[in-house]
Amino acid sequence: MMKNKYMPFGYKLMLSYCFFIIIPVMLIGYFADSIYVKSIREQTESNVNGTLSQMGDNISFKMKDIIRVSDLLYYDHALARNLKSYEEGWVSYSATTRYLLPKFQSSIEATSLQMWISIYLHNETFPEIYRSYNGEDPLRISERWYDLYHISRIMDKRWYKQFPEEDYGITMQWKQVDDDPEYGYISLLRRMVNVQSVPYPQEIGFLKLSVYLSDLFESVDHNKIGNGATIFITDASNEIMMSSGESEYEQDVLWDEELYKDYLIMEEFIPELEWKITAVIPNQIFTDKISEVRLITVLICLLFIVFYFVSGAVLSRYFSRRVGKIVSVLDSFQEGNFHKRINFKGNDEFTRISLALNEMGQNIGELIHKVYVAELDKKETELDMLQAQINPHFLYNTLSSINRLAKFGELDKLQLMVMDLAKFYRLSLNEGRIVLPISEELEQANAYINIQKIKYEDRMGVIFDIDPGIMKYDTIKLIIQPFIENILEHAWCADHINIRIVGTRDGDTIQFKIIDDGVGISSELLEQMADSNESANVGYGIYNVNQRIKLFYGPSYGVHIYSKLGIGTTVCIRFPIVAPKNSKVNELSITRSGGSFRS
Fold first, then answer.
1. CA–CA distance from 88 to each of 83, 92, 124, 361, 536 (Å)?
2. Same structural domain for residues 237 and 300?
3. What confidence tens digit (pLDDT) does each residue in 242-277 have?
4. Are residues 398 and 376 in the same domain?
5. Is pLDDT above 50 for 310?
6. Which residue windows are coiled coil (predicted)?
7. Contact (Cβ atoms closer than 8 angstroms) between residue 150 and residue 124
8. Which residues pair with 268 in a beta bridge?
9. CB–CB of 196/204 below 8 Å?
10. Tell me: the pLDDT tens digits for 378-387?
11. Strands (E) located in 302-378
């Protein structure tokens, strides 16, 4: 079998420095770089989202402004009545010049946008009023104007035939119709109706409000996003209606996302148009910043690695020399030489170790002696405990009860008492073991209660309230029965007494409470019991249990008693959780004691 190759402590310390410092520095640098790249992208996406949202809000505001202008004509009932009932003559002429034409003019002047309103009327007695544009852009001639036509001009138009049925106040469409694509317009299409007609509003005309796409999308500017970015406005069929940026396209070109698969693409929908704003951002915007930060990160990591490497070499040499001296002293102790000493300057852990080793050589004999005496004390305490378990008075009373039951021929009770007495002493002796499962400790207490139940019958009531989760842990034996016995001997104040045994887990400790509603204990007697010794008559059992717990588990644990005269007494037993080494937890079932387990 090959022996492990010897490696000095200094080399191991140096390797640990390399592993636990250099590697983490590299990982920190890597994750810092990744986080920064992600942060840049997320920040850019957030900024672009905000910009696109502002663009969308601006477009929606202008569209609502155009709808507001159409509302001035749509909801004017007097206008609808005059247009429907117009007839040739002075009255109609007067209404036209004094109300209708000023109404059209005031409506178109209600917006700051360049707008051309075309009004198509069913009443063909109303004269057409329009300009002759000769193929020119109407809005180049006048920024705001309106024309009146007869409906017959658009009756055969496809867009007019396909216009949806009227839902009063709601039905409208945004479309490019007729010459709109040529002039760069987009139009709001809407009926004019007479609401007084029944059963449905009657169409008396049709409105077409045309504005420049460039005015409507004035806020769409790629410079608001960054250099190299491009913004596309696409319709529902994915055709490019407008673009801004280095990659500008003409209209009627299909938007192809595959051409920009290496770009960051973000979208904002315009619900009124069913169009969308698409921002295309080149990755070069990110990579320039990322490369600069990545170089700085690498340089910082290299500086830290060099610094930690040099520091690690110096520290490992310093500590390895000190550890070597400590090892030489330990080797001497192993050989039986406890006279070797070491001295370190300073005030650190190595100095404290050297002082401790120096004291160890001087005190080791005394420590061995103390351990030996402690073992003797522990054995003596165990003998005292075994002596206390075999209570002659309890055995005498039980045998007397057995004799009485035999005389009266109560064989069933006799059999139960004998079986419980045997179980009690079997668990008490416990094959000489000090520790037993909590389930067996409770079983022994239950056997004692069953014996006393035969004696006192219905004069005593016992309830077990035990957390099932603590049954799997161990305890030293005979910590509950002495307190039950003490209650039955000293706590009676009436013809009936109730006892409640509670077992719970509190963090890393187990706590038992034995509660009775008996006569209680005076404060003077409580002080006497706390100071009781082996010669005391009352409180020896309490003293015995308390001392055994403190001896076995430490001074932080033990027994505490709380009592009030005329109300009752509560005994609290605390000890740490100890898992069983090689035993299965026995489920305890109490059926003959008048009590029950409750979780």
1. 12, 6, 11, 132, 132
2. no
3. 777 755 444 444 455 566 666 778 788 887 777 888
4. no
5. yes
6. none
7. yes
8. 277
9. no
10. 756 664 654 4
11. none
| 493 and 554 fall within a common domain | yes
Residue listed under structure tokens 């191991």: 12
Q: How many helices (H) and strands (E) does the chain have?
A: 17, 17
Residues of 218-253 as b/e, b for ≥16 C-beta within 10 angstroms?
Answer: ebbebebbbebbbbbbbbeeeebbbbbbebebeeee
Question: Is residue 588 within 8 Å of 446, Cβ to Cβ?
Answer: yes
Tokens of 178: 């007729």
122 lies in the same domain as 102: yes
* pLDDT tens by residue, 525-583: 888 776 655 444 556 677 778 888 887 888 899 999 999 988 999 999 999 998 776 54
Give a yes or no: residue 595 inside a domain: no
* Other Cβ atoms within 10 Å of 580 Cβ, number: 15
The residue-averaged pLDDT of 217-234 equals: 80
CA contacts within 13 A on the Cβ side of 511:
13
Q: How far apart are CA 426 and CA 415, in angstroms?
A: 16
Yes or no: say if 369 and 346 are a contact pair by the CB < 8 Å rule. Answer: no
Q: Which residues pair with 504 in a beta bridge?
A: 511
Which residue type, as a one-letter code, is found at position 428?
Answer: S
Within this chain, do residues 338 and 307 fall inside the same structural domain, yes or no?
Answer: no
**Final residue of a domain: which of 194, 216, 238?**
216
Same domain, 269 and 291: no
How many degrees, rounded to 5, is the angle at CA 500 between CA 497 and CA 504? Answer: 170
Q: Is residue 29 part of a domain?
A: no
Write out the residue range of the structural domain in which residue 210 sits. Answer: 69-130+138-216
Does 490 lie in the same domain as 398? yes
Count the Cβ atoms, other than its own, within 10 Å of residue 139. Answer: 21
